[in-house]
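2 proteins. here.
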Amino acid sequence: MNISISTYQVKKGDTLQSVAEELGISAEALKRYHNTYCDLKNLIGVDLKGIQEVIIPSKNQIAELKEVQKQLSYSEKLPALYLNKTFYYPTYEVTESIETLGQEDIKINYSTAIKLNEISDRGFIAIVNNSDFKKKGQSPDDKISMLSLACMESISPVAFLVPVQGKLKGFYEHKTLVKKFENKRADLESFFIGDINKAYFDKFYSNITKENYLLKQFCSTLLYQVLFPEMDWFRRKKEWEEEFFIIQNSFPVNCRFITEYNFENPENVEIIIKGEIKENCSLQELLRGLKLEEEGAETLSGDIELKYTTHKLTKQLQKVEAEVILWHEDEQYNKHTLLLIAKQEEEKPKKKYNTLVDK
């Protein structure tokens, strides 16, 4: 097969970089192309010293090289394929809202602190603490909310196991979590007195002792699903199917996802993951958390959009915007949104020193 070869005559002052820039490709790509087709005596080393002419790609090949470079450039700006200790900021501010047909809207704000501790053979221990809960801008003052928060605070922070591929896989020392509640229960009962409160504590204790059940409670929330994704979500080039919890404490449903990108911002990358329910299930099944054998039930549809903003250089997670919408009989039944923004550490004011000049 004959290959048509074009050459560039090297002039005084030319460098490998300047010739490559004129062609619109990287110096490394030009060097690699030239060395593929040149004689051994004309191989390009670190510069063009001793090189009289450079073999250059055709216009079509240049276009292909530019596309490859573009994709490589994009890939370098995305988070790593595996989780690392610097992926998360220490603290995030979270706003979560739920709109359900026929019910009062719910809006809460809280802070989420994350710390990753590396364990050599199992990935990471993710220590997570949710605090400073506010409902409609105010600290909850109704008894049920206060009781629920007090119970959750008694076992916080919670330590999870997260492999390098991402996604919560279990608790780190589940028995320690249970022990924390046992140690604090007496103090809680001295404040929350009465048979109703005691029954609540009994139920809470029973639930946290069931390790798999408790893990599902966390994993089925929108917060933990978006906060601990599979890391390769950020780099998938084709559609894929995966289970996702549309409603907390229900069962996961099979959804189809696709990943899109926005690289226009000079500092950040937007990774948009769009999904839709593909599994046949009804609203009643999801609300009950149980699949039924009934046929002819109205099939539920739903849309998911998860928008991750990461820094191009540090690859840190700066923001997540999540939205899950359920449609029932062509009407919006439920809309669950979550906004998670990294809390930037305030810079400490620099000390000012006054120079005293003797007069």
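next one coming up
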Amino acid sequence: MTSLPTPCALALRPAVLTRRRALAWGAAVLAAPGLANAQPGDKPLRVILPLSAGSGADGAIRAISNSLAKALGHPVVIENLPGAGGITGTAQIVRAPRDGSVIGVVSNNHVVNPAVYKNIPFDSLADITPITVLGATPFVLVAHPSVPAKTVQELIAYARAKPGVLNYGSSGNGTILHLGAAMFVDQAQVDIKHIPYRGMGPLMNDILGGQVQLGVVAVAPAAAHIKAGALRALGVTTAVRVPTLPSVPTIAEQGLSGFELEGWIAPIGPAGLPKAEVARLYNGFKTAMEMSEAREALLAQGYDIKLTPPEQAAAFFGSEAARMAQVVKSANVKMD
């Protein structure tokens, strides 16, 4: 798996970040060239990640945290609060103070969860304020080399000839990787069994070992295995081909028209976050991504940089929620 850039010390040790030290740190940052207009708050920015350490969103935000702290003019403290597909941490985000001191970073699961979980203690759209869609990463349908298929159509033909023989793994029930594979099974009209894992690491290990034969995984951690021949790439999930794997066609161009899925990450705040704070935070991310350190770090994590304005981010959340609800219904995705 791709190694993660070293996160800033402040993100690793938030407990020792006292108010006095935070203000002193902010004063030092403001003295840096080009940052004289930054407006430090009375508190560090607390960023809640409703995902586990080592996840794609975790790696991405930690990779840019130092640049974001410089752009905002005060420290950034990252806190992982995983559980229940992101619901546990997001419940803390929606209850956060509406002063811009606490935000969260969510992924696709945020808009998938309402369709797969019966009881969620918040409204995934009404109880948040989208700040931006920071970036998106492509996925790829991979197979263990023992699978006698080199293209999507060959896989479909083989699966139809041997219903119930193949299986696919995911990073867990209801996750975006589960949904991506379920979309394929539904649109291809094949019988392939689902085996859920507890995270991307165990899933990747078992696909490489042949214990599970197929999976939809992020391109970045899979690319080296594909190039080494340890995995076979059958198709990417994006609308166009991916520069990292230029010879791998999209799933859509191989006959499953309209198949499109990316893994995105988006900073959000609680509902009612003042427009001035939304603008300040959005501009902070925008300024951070203008720094080569942050841009290169995010690209190294396999993300395409989006940086959609807040209004567009809000519209995106709404459209994605509706689309994912339809996908969950059509693919009959259920929590076990």
